[in-house]
Amino acid sequence: MHKDFKTRIYFSNPRQLIFWCFMLIFLFVGLIIQFETTGFSFLGMIFWIIAILLTLYGFFGQQLLIDGQNQTVTFKRLFFKSRVIPFDNIKNVLHIRRNVRVSLLKPGYLHYSFMILPKNMNLLLDTFRINHVKIKDVAQKPSLK
Prior knowledge:
The chain is α+β, with helices and mostly antiparallel strands. The protein is about 40% helix and about 30% strand. Helix 1 (about 15-35) packs antiparallel against helix 2 (about 40-60). The termini are far apart. Keywords: Membrane, Transmembrane, Transmembrane helix.
């Protein structure tokens, strides 16, 4: 039995920090330009619009599709080419709280890190288990006795 899964994913770790820093830079530069002019500033509004578009891309720009029948994981992106990974090429799936890291066999240095909402995390892990993908759980901490 194979199971399919589809959800939105979000940037994780260093990419997230860089992305949201750029968004805040555009927002604050637009704010400074708008307040330093005596009238309405189109340049300030352009920076605000860029910040709003970056925010929308951060929330809605990426999607994860797991196709159980074709045995593939697809990372769909809004502006870039989708990446399709067969289950045979997945080394393991590591999850820590809301972060998921998919490591690949070939090339071994490549991995995909993303965040996922808690309600979708269980569905994602169940889908990987049903499709026989190796999962590592490091969220469980050893007890101090």
